[in-house]
Structures
1.
Amino acid sequence: MNSEMEFSDEDHGDSHRSLLTHMSCENDSDSEDTCTEILLPENSNSPETEDFVYKVLSVDQIVQHQRNIIDEVNNVLNLPPQVTRIILNHFKWDKESLFENYFESNPKDFFQRAHVLNPFEKKIERESAASTSCAIPQLCGICFCSCDELIGLGCGHNFCAACWKQYLANKTCSEGLANTIKCPAANCEILVDYISFLKLADDSEVVERYQQLITNTFVECNMLMRWCPAPNCSHAVKAVCAEPRAVLCKCGHEFCFACGENWHEPASCSSLKKWVKKCLEDSETSNWIAQNTKECPKCNVTIEKDGGCNHMVCKNPSCRYDFCWVCLGSWEPHGSSWYSCNRFDEEEAKQARLAQQKYRSSMARYLHYYNRYSNHMQSLKMENKLYSNIQAKMDDMQEEMSWIEVQFLRDAVDVLCQCRTTLMYSYVFAFYLMNNNQKIIFEDNQKDMEMATEKLSECLEREITVKNIYEVKQKVLDLSHYCQKRRHVLLCHVREGYENDWWEFKEETTT
């Protein structure tokens, strides 16, 4: 078995933004983008300075970790391993909680609550109760067929091997149960232990599924472990503390250890959860309402225009206001020139438009942030395709150049995608942020990073050949470095804001 590998995300946590940091991007006389940089002070911490230690575990390593915990508990309690496994699962694999309850409880009550037989209680003929083999045939408690050998868990309820096999297969494969499979007898709470399951199931596919389920339960119960959410990945991450930090799986997927979503700094886990829910509920509805409806200028009831005539009559029984769909003014003064709407600038129409604008301000605010969030998401999807295009260019150029000479292109795409991701989640952060002076600074940093990212994206999408590779290389390197610095400034400012309580967030924002 391979040893556990240690990784570090180089801190996505606390860091300080230097007020002396300044970067600028200017155009020279040849209209080429150049980046002028004032370097960060030496005492300025990078966004990834404090290590977040974690380990990426394979399934075999997870199983071994389970066994290690069982051994640690058994060194203290001296219990059979199969009993220890059930008790640990009952306490969600929290050793400290198990020890505390064990030494403070009556043994009988302790094992009863864990739904396991007391291993220290002496029972007459326990072995024969666990596995009854009699000269006289007995009836199975499930199929009621006569059987020479009945098998049980020690609780006194015995069944034939065929019924056990079918029962365990159904519980495991159909119901998805593993650690909580009970004795088939009615009102019996005793759980099937690991060793008994392996003997009674007698089917390699059922046993394999059972082992997958108990491994999955072990990871999900442990606050310091999380499965990698990438499709078809079987690795789990084990960390030293449950914090919202970025972790990188061996499969290459980076995600938030706290919530399991793609790494989403600067947005918090709670903000992202609210945002995703809001987008699912509101985005399509809000866009449709904004494009297809207006509010009555008098009572603000939302109205959909379902005909070609611009003469509208509010259907609200308490209103019944006549108005023009185009200018939202009263219909009465339109006269014979209603098609051209020549009274568009009259005071009443202006007031109606202002009222509608005020009524929809919250919707407009949401759509502002949603459209920019969605735009960066779409750009990120498109720029992920750059990898294949860049790889093809690198392969072509390696006939005349070395691999190391063209590797900067792939590195630049990595930086570009990283910046797109940060910008995408920066709009989630900004949406819930209350207005203050620090938000203005944040939006300035956001704007600078956005401009730099667009320049890098444009540069990488240009035609790159062997002839212009050296000319393009310096420009790509400069832009990549500048984008990284702008991302550094934005993230450090956000972290500094959390440290100094600069940020105030909206509890609820309606559209």
2.
Amino acid sequence: MKIKNAEFVISAVGPDQYPDDALPEIALAGRSNVGKSSLINRMINRKNLARTSSTPGKTQHLNYYRINEQLYFVDFPGYGYAKVSKTLRQVWGKMIEQYILERESLRLIMLIVDLRHPPSKDDILMYDWLKHYDMPVMVVATKADKIPRSRHAKHVKIIKQELGMTPEDKFIMFSSEAGIGREELWGYISEVAELDKEEDLVTPPVESDSNEV
């Protein structure tokens, strides 16, 4: 899919603010500082549309990004950040739960984890919860460029075992800096969102951000 246009639409705090154009939505969930914003920027070949930050937990809403007038990326608040109050984490949890269970436009939840480290307790809880409700979920392991290729298989095995993934569960390694996994991820998104499969998935590379959040 050639990226013709991409734009930030809204930071929504509830259903009354969600877009009503019924475009398919691809949600991104994961802990703070795992690389969700950088993944979005790499996927759309833009350096700063999804703002990265050195302050984990900064995203407190559902951030909507419209791509080619065909679909949305929906960036969830990052979880697992200790300095965020318990009350605020509960509010986030209710907002996300309502969105996941009730949003008809939702086509896929990407659970973003760090390839370098075993999944956190929050990662495992999120994955178990999504599988319990039979939600369409795939695991995307970011920062694949940060470890040698010879160790990729070992780290992938650890992540899959810790999450309890089965062979049919979808998993992709990704790097926002090196572009690893970008074409494969767009291919799967195009499939689940029922986008035009005749369009070219390859777009020119762009200078990547140095920091992933």
